[in-house]
Write a structure and sequence with these properties.
By secondary structure, the chain is of the alpha+beta class. The chain has helices at residues 186-191, 194-197, 218-225, 229-238, 246-254, 263-266, and strands at residues 13-15, 24-30, 33-37, 40-43, 49-50, 55-58, 63-67, 73-76, 81-83, 98-107, 113-118, 122-136, 139-153, 162-165, 169-173, 179-181.
């Protein structure tokens, strides 16, 4: 079992009762990481502020910690794609924090806070304590290091939540049913990021301005453009201007079947309302058969004498 890591603050974790949204601050960044914010790519350096809807991309062997004033934190492991959002922005009772792939450790803070996040395969709700998670294509695992949480299988419509407590480990693979065990599997333990095992004191770095790294390429956001529909649709509005970038547009067009909502942006003329059809004037009915023109007969004796 990991050593408890009571750190401070998370984007995607807040008191359930009407808390105002708050930005977080990156207090640890080991390795390379970038933040995609609207149309910008930013360097994820210690001291930058993380905002709602930011996309965090970490590189190989990278560890990043984001802290918030309410005493909760999010730890991001290597090769991870994560969208930040506090639960107060949830729609239809869905968590805002979204783990597309990679490693995440979520730690609740002050009493009364409840953390939650979503992934393509499952939701983790009402976390009070600390949970470590790995999400890969078609599989995933959750280990409750401390406290309690509820796990919901998104692959099964209407699936009832599974209650988890300290020490519980739940994993899914492809279409197999979820299984809860009393301790983590060995392959999970052996691959857990080293920083997830450490007890890390809260950090207090000075705030710094985020450094721009220029524009992002299609390959850097391809996983988001082709994510599940509720996730990818937001980027059509956010990245609409990227359709004017020749290379980005070509990539969108080349795999349009994976993100059909980009169709109206790429080919607006095909989606314009058609003009109402004009009524055709009625045709003149032709006369059947040949038309005979009467020729006047000559009058006898009508000529000059």
């Amino acid at each position: 079992m990991f050593r408890s890591a009571i750190a401070a603050a998370l984007l995607g974790c807040a008191p359930w009762a009407g808390a105002a949204e708050a930005s977080g601050i990156a207090t640890i960044v080991e390795g390379k990481a970038v933040v995609i914010r609207a149309l910008s790519k930013l360097d994820a350096a210690v001291g930058i502020r993380l905002l709602a809807d930011d996309l965090v991309h970490t590189g190989k062997d990278t560890f990043m910690r984001i802290e918030y004033d309410d005493g909760t934190s999010v730890h991001v492991g290597p090769e991870t794609l994560l969208q930040l959002n506090p639960p107060s922005r949830r729609k239809s009772e869905r968590p805002g924090l979204y783990l597309l792939s990679g490693w995440l450790k979520l730690i609740s803070g002050k009493a009364g806070t409840r953390c939650s996040f979503r992934s393509p395969q499952f939701d983790v709700l009402e976390l009070s304590g600390a949970v470590a998670t790995r999400v890969e294509a078609g599989s995933g695992a959750v280990f409750v290091e401390q406290g309690t949480a509820r796990w919901v299988d998104r692959r099964v419509r209407g699936a009832p939540p599974v209650s988890l407590k300290s020490g519980d480990y739940l994993s899914i693979r492809q279409d197999d049913a979820a299984s809860v065990q009393g301790r983590p599997a060995q392959d999970f333990l052996s691959s857990v990021p080293r920083a997830f095992r450490d007890t890390l004191p809260p950090g207090h770095p000075p705030a710094v301005a985020a450094k721009s790294l220029g524009a992002f390429s299609y390959s850097e956001v391809e996983s988001w453009v082709n994510a599940e529909p509720p996730i990818r649709r937001q980027f059509v509005r956010l990245w609409r201007a990227k359709a004017d970038d020749e290379a980005f547009r070509a990539s969108l067009e080349g795999s349009l079947s994976l993100h059909p909502e980009w169709g109206p942006v790429l080919y607006p003329e095909l989606y314009e309302p058609k003009p109402p059809q004009q009524a055709t004037p009625s045709a003149v009915t032709p006369v059947a058969g040949p038309v005979t023109v009467p020729v006047p007969e000559p009058q006898i004796g009508a000529g000059p004498h």
